[in-house]
Amino acid sequence: MNGNNKTFPSDFTLTGLFTNNKASGFLFSIICAIFFMAMIANGVMIFLIYIDPHLHTPMYFLLSHLSFIDIMYISTIVPKMLADYLEGEGTISFIACTAQYFLYMGFVGAEFFLLGLMAYDRYVAICNPLRYPVLMSHRVCWMILASSWFGGALDSFLLTPITMSLPFCASHKINHFFCEAPTMLRLACGDKAVYEMVMYICCVMMLLIPFSVVIASYTGVLIAVHQMKSAEGKKKAFATCSSHMMVVILFYGAALYTYMLPQSYHTPTKDKVFSVFYTIITPLLNPLIYSLRNRDVAEAFKRVLARCRGTREEF
Fold this sequence. Notes:
By secondary structure, the chain is mainly alpha-helical. The protein has one domain (about 20-295): Up-down Bundle (Rhopdopsin 7-helix transmembrane proteins). The chain is about 75% helix and about 5% strand. The protein has a three-stranded mixed beta sheet. The longest helix is centred in the middle third of the chain and has 35 residues, at about 195-225. It starts with 5 loop residues before the first strand and ends with a helix. The model is unreliable at about 1-10 (pLDDT under 50).
């Protein structure tokens, strides 16, 4: 290929989400509201789990770190996008794009693995309740957490050099609102077959390994629930797992489209819609789903409010 078609690393231009002048202001307000609500909701979730002794259990320990990951990766994407709209430009340097890509892949990869391993927690709680304190000990929880962060870091360190070392075409216009893998690959020039194959294998591992854990865990849960004679026991078991399953379906569904489908099925508009769903909306839905469908969290919130009222009355 002619060397004149390619340029060395320099600034990129993000087209962003706010391309329609008529609706851009309204869309900006919606995204801004979602961002601040997600930050507050996840922050409240972490605070409640930390301060309330009734929530000092393995499930809520993992859930607090899920909320932390949500805060981190939505902060990697949305503030830049909102600032670009206010400034009227979407320029991002090669270094900043690489850093955003690296952090995003790390946080999202960690969430993939953490959601998968959280299914094991639900499996143990329902299928081996008497051994739950042993099988989900404090040490095991930290091992699950460490494994999740290790998986996310591995994704970042493998995929970032592969993607960002590609020769990019003369047009550095990224038809997206952040530096995401499929979009960056479309911007690259030359033979991308090897890069696409390595990225595909990494994404298969990142998605299918934790998803296999989810399938195996919930298969065991369904078998155990089917064998239960008590209707109340079945209802409680489904209530225990339903919140986690909703989060898994929402998060993995959008991510499977983004990273598993061949490039021929992708369009810039579809990529933006699915990316918005699992990078912006899901961090807001996660704490809402777990709090609205979880009596323990609601009761913990009431206890904290009652404690605050009692403290205020003393003064």
